[in-house]
Structure formats: structure tokens, C-alpha cells
Amino acid sequence: MGIYALTGGATGIGAAIKSLLITRGHRVIVVDLKDADITADLSTTIGRTAAVDGIKGLAPEGLDGLVTCAGVGSHIPNHRLIASVNYFGTVKVTEQLADLVAVKNGAIVLLSSNSAPMSTSNDYVDLLLSGDEDAALDASEKITGHEAYSGSKQAIARWMRRKAPAFARQGITINALAPGYTETPMTKVVSEDPKYGDSIKRFKESIPVGRAGKPEDIADFVDFLLGPKSRFICGSVLFIDGGHDAMLRADQF
Ligand code: NAD
User: Fold this and answer.
1) Position 98 in a domain
2) Looking at the predicted structure, is the pLDDT value of residue 47 above 90?
3) Span from the CA of 167 to the centroid of ligand 1 (angstroms)
4) Is residue 179 within 8 Å of residue 110, measured between CB atoms?
5) CA dist., res. 180 & res. 59, Å (int)
């Protein structure tokens, strides 16, 4: 059975992935702020180093896969945290663990979002992709929470696509998931907010398949992407959103 590293495995989508992988008989190393094998704050360089060193210590034989779920939502007032956790907390950890995944020709799955194509803050996304964390965090303070969030998720998808060919030559497949509205602690907070509650209700009602996503919808697909039957899927941004992206952007893909 395999050994997988998972960031953000304490709640929501990450917790569903953890639970499914354990049911399948795999070992899962969770990095999170709480309820984790490695307690680390991925918004900081120190936390990312603790996460990477901790995973290397627990899986010296290599990883069958890495899944990065740690993230914060667009509703939080501190936009710097959106950029630092969502983007840098994802790509810095992935970069530093790639060799460990390559040992076992493993798979990497990054959590982007179906909001990624909605970003219009090109300068912010360019700064994220440039790797200049201080400048990107400064830029995040000048835009809305939605732009800081969707931009962080667009940058994850584009970073993944830039890296995918080289990773594939190392024996690693890497893909990004673009979930739509999924019922988790993150979305619960926003849906209960008196300011956003009504618009979230209308947004949910507009999902073509007629319901919001469940963490298990995403976990099932992650399980497939980590398994042996998906090894030709590489460099893809996969929308798991009940048809929402198709509804909103039919002619763009
Ligand atoms: P969630 O809030 O339930 O889970 C996020 C996890 O990340 C939590 O366990 C949290 O403790 C952890 N985390 C937050 N900040 C951290 C930090 N600084 N260091 C380490 N861990 C940290 O949310 P979720 O909805 O399950 O989201 C999981 C991922 O899926 C996120 O990246 C999110 O952006 C993405 N996503 C969610 C939705 C949705 O509708 N729920 C849609 C698209 C994408």
C-alpha cells in the first residue's frame, strides 16, 4: 500500500481525502495547523520547512503521492494570508518534495479552484508566478478578497502547467483540481455571513447538476488521480464543479 503526504487534511476536502486513502489501506501524513501528523503553518517559510523536513523524516523511502489542500477562503480580511498559504504554501512544499515523489514515480494533485479563470488581477498573478513573495503579498492588499483568492488559484494552475513536462520526465504526474462550490467548513462560514449569504444561495442554485459539491466528490477523483489507472493524465486542470465552469465559460477551455 502507498504512503501519501497531504496538506490541509484536518477538515473539509482534505479530511475526506485522508479518510478515503486510509480506507484503501494507505498511510497518510497530514500537515495542518491542527489535528495533524506534522503541525505547521504553511504561510511561513519556517512552517514550510518544518512540513517538508517532517515528511522526509516520516517517509524516507519516498512518497507515492502528494496532495495539497491547505488553503484559506476569499472571505478572510487578511489577503496576505490568501497569497501566502494558497500559492506559496502549495508550490514551495511541492517543489521541495518533488524528488521524494520521483523516487516512487508518484502523483501530485494540487487544489486550484473553478474560480481560477475568473481572476482579472494579472499583475498580482504575475508576481505570484515570479516567486517574489513579498511583492505578491503587498499586491494582495490592494485587491478584493475574491481577486486575491481566484488569482492565487489561477497561479497554482499555471505553475502546475509550466512544471508538468519536467516533472513527467522525472516520473511524476502532476495535475490540478478545480472544484466548484463544495460544502466544507470554508464555504459554511461564507454561506452564513449576513453580507454574502443570499448571493451564495443563488450561486449554489445555479449549479447545473442541481446540488453543491461534497468533499467526497473531490476525494473520489483524487483517489483516481493517485492510482495506477490515471498515469496518462498529466498537466491537466480538471473541473469538478457540477457543470458550473461549462455554464459560465462554454467557449473557453
Ligand atoms: P477547509 O477550510 O475545510 O480546509 C482547509 C484546510 O487548510 C484546513 O484544515 C485548515 O486548517 C488548513 N490550513 C489553513 N491555513 C493553513 C496554514 N496556514 N497552514 C497549514 N494548513 C492550513 O476548506 P476546504 O473547502 O476543504 O478547502 C480545501 C482546498 O480546496 C482549499 O485549497 C480550497 O481553496 C480549495 N477549494 C475549495 C472549494 C470549496 O468550495 N470548498 C472550492 C474550490 C477550491
Assistant:
1) yes
2) yes
3) 25
4) no
5) 32
Residue 100 has a pLDDT of 98
Ligand 1 binding pocket mutation candidate from 7, 33, 112, 190 (most atoms within 8 A of CB) = 33
What residues make up the domain containing 230?
Answer: 3-184+215-241
Per the structure, the count of domains in the chain is: 1
Q: Is 235 left (phi over 0), alpha (psi -120 to 50) or beta?
A: left
Mind listing the pLDDT tens digit for each residue in 195-229?
888 989 999 999 999 999 999 999 999 999 999 99
In angstroms, rounded to a whole number, what is the distance separating the alpha carbons of residues 64 and 95?
Answer: 15
d(CA 218, CA 201): 21
Asked whether residue 191 is domain-assigned, the answer is no
Query: What is the band of 119 on the pLDDT scale with cuts at 50, 70, 90?
Result: very high
63 within domain boundaries: yes
Determine the distance separating the centroid of ligand 1 and the alpha carbon of 111, expressed in angstroms.
9
6 backbone dihedrals φ, ψ, rounded to 5°: -140, 120
Closest CA to 48 of 18, 14, 84, 78: 84
CA distance 237 to 115: 12
Q: What is the mean pLDDT of residues 136-150?
A: 98
pLDDT at 190 > cutoff 90 = no
70 lines ligand 1 (CB under 6 A): yes
- Catalytic amino acids? 149
Q: Which amino acid is at 128?
A: L
Is residue 209, in this structure, part of any structural domain at all?
no
What is the per-residue pLDDT for 194? 85
Ligand 1, from 20, 52, 186: best to mutate by most atoms within 8 Å of Cβ?
186
Model pTM greater than 0.85? Answer: yes
Q: What is the CATH number of the domain that holds 171?
A: 3.40.50.720
